[in-house]
Amino acid sequence: MKRINLRDMYPFFKTDVWVDVDEEVAQEIRRFDLHESAYRLRVYRHQAYYSLDRNDGIEQDILFLSLSSEEAYERKLSRQQLYEALCQLPEKSARRIYAHFFLGMSKVAIARAEHVDERAVRKSIQRGLRQMGHLLKNM
């Protein structure tokens, strides 16, 4: 156990408040402090403490593009076609493609979850994508 002072971490504490925490938590807090101070040093060195946003929405418009109604409809239609093609695949390929591309799982993680070889997962995904390509061309 390690004792830390919450006053060092939280500016709203006016007096010392000591808390006992595990060593792992203390190491994570220390690691965070080091990353934060390194970031502040990089900002200072590169003089990057300014923003293009003048409260007129410039950054907001660039970072978060708003779609027109036509673009939103096209995306919805293409997403619907994609799901229809995915549903026409064999169950195993569809499940693996969904896990890899939609859930962001790696092929190794899928193979571990299904207790199969990673090559089988890779080949199944490749076959399924080829089949989806053919299905989408015919739609």
Structure keywords:
single chain; 139 residues; mainly alpha; two-stranded antiparallel ribbon; 7 helices; flat
Q: Order of strands in the sheet with the most strands? A: 1-2
Oligomer: single chain
Instruction: Tell me the helix content.
Output: 55-70%
Total helical elements: 7
Radius of gyration: 25 Å
Strand % is: 5-15%
- H/E element string? EHEHHHHHH
Got a strand count?
2
Instruction: Indicate the low-confidence ranges by residue numbers.
Output: none
Question: How would you portray this structure in words?
Answer:
This protein has helices at residues 6-9, 23-46, 58-63, 69-87, 91-102, 107-114, 118-138, and strands at 2-5, 18-21. It has 139 residues and is mainly alpha-helical. The chain has a two-stranded antiparallel sheet. The longest helix has 24 residues, at 23-46. It is flat. 8% of the residues are buried.
Secondary structure topology:
Blueprint (H helix, E strand, L loop, with lengths): L1 E4 H4 L8 E4 L1 H24 L11 H6 L5 H19 L3 H12 L4 H8 L3 H21 L1
Antiparallel strand pairs: 1-2
Short synopsis of the structure:
The protein is 68% helix and 6% strand. By secondary structure, it is mainly alpha-helical.
